[in-house]
Amino acid sequence: MAVTGWLESLRAAEKTALLQDVRKWRVKSTLGALGQWQIEVGDPVPPGAGSLGPELIKESNANPIFMRKDTKMSFQWRIRNLPYPKDVYSVCVDQKERCLVIRTTNKKYYKKFSIPDLDRYQLPLDDSSLSFAHANCTLIISYQKPKEVLAAESELQKELKKVKTAHSSDGDCKTQ
Fold this sequence. Notes:
Layout: H1 2-12, E1 23-28, E2 34-41, E3 65-68, E4 74-80, E5 89-94, E6 99-104, E7 110-113, H2 116-120, E8 130-135, E9 138-144, H3 147-161
Antiparallel strand pairs: 1-2, 3-4, 4-9, 5-6, 6-7, 8-9
């Protein structure tokens, strides 16, 4: 089954840091160099954190910002800077492409995205598990986690508790 394969690959993976509310991957390129970080859950890199480059072009802070923030019982995505009322949005499941689709009736925003956790465990998408809300210019999309994913996450938490931290002190700085 795909669940055990995924847990085994996590057990075998090198764990460099445990950060709360962030899940990101770094894959080696074909030549063996480490590639860019791919953020699956958590905030994207804040704008302006890196250098602007020679072009000195910066993305507008009014553009929609898409991020994933999970809760214990559901996968959750937040899209900031979407000022339209809730009745303008349509969120649905595309069974053929195994993804969720967000569109507006005024054709100002369109986005397709998959749920990597369900793809890993080869679970089907269900329309009844999907819901969305809109508040403070933020569209919040929730998808209830299936029982299989909840069980796998509890196994993952048990595995992460076994990981030894680099410094197991209480955080006090010791000076000489």
